Amino acid sequence: MQGSLRKAALAAALSIVGVAGGLTLAAPAQAQVVESGSVSFSGDPGDYITGGDSYSYSTDGGDQLTTSSSVDNSSLLVSINGYNGDWWSVDFDAPGSAPLTPGTYAAATRYPFNGAGPGLDLSGNGRGCNELTGTFTVINAVFGPNGYVQTFDATFEQHCEGGAPAARGEVHIANPPPPAQLELELSVATDGIAHRVNGNAVLHGTVTCNVPASVTMEGMVTQVVKKVIIRGSFSTHVTCTPGSPTPWTAAAVPGGTTPFAKGLAEAVTQARGYDTEYNEYVTVNNTTTVKLTRS
Description:
The protein is mainly β. The chain has 2 domains: 2-174, no CATH class; 184-294, Sandwich (Immunoglobulin-like). Helix content is 4%, strand content 55%. The longest helix has 13 residues, at 2-14. It starts with a helix and ends with a strand. The model is unreliable at 1-27 (pLDDT under 50).
């Protein structure tokens, strides 16, 4: 994440050439710490980015690599926080919203100012190109849900400011298979209670999940009694644990002065859980006819 922030600040600082129009970038997924990977690059004499030197970083050597991909897998960032204090980032961007797949891409513009064409950017340690040309070759790219980067291998060549000297390098990223995405199943029982004292309609049911999740059930109960429409909202919260359905109970409070009564009612329910692995909410909806009995 630190590398991403530095990258954003560096891109802003180097944007000294006016760019017409706005930028539309695919939303990035959460940054991942790379479990196993390496980044190495070197430059020709006269290359501004490398100063003609060679650099090599790897998780085995104690360097921290993080990576993130856009949710459509069209762009990918690798950030390097070197054990020695170095910091670098490498961006790869496919044309438009096409995913990064094996092949060679010719970048005529620095990412993120490349519009619908391929983009590339190697920068860091206080140096970056204002304009660049280059190519990159994706050798292998395996993504999981929501921009999860499982495997990425690529080589690249970058020329700053139209110059002949180049920086050339390669990236190798290997992460475990992606964690499971949160999946929810919502059940609303067809029997409920219409309380004589407070007029509430009490519902119950279960929610099932494949990974642990905090889940909120919210909804509306609607009933028609003697041409009077009775509506009441409800909300409850449970901690869902995989392995067996988690029970829930909620009371819908009528919005007016007419209480819920014995008879049929419609319950429209939504279960909403937060997927901590992918930083997103998952929802499922249910509409059930419930038979309320007096209690």
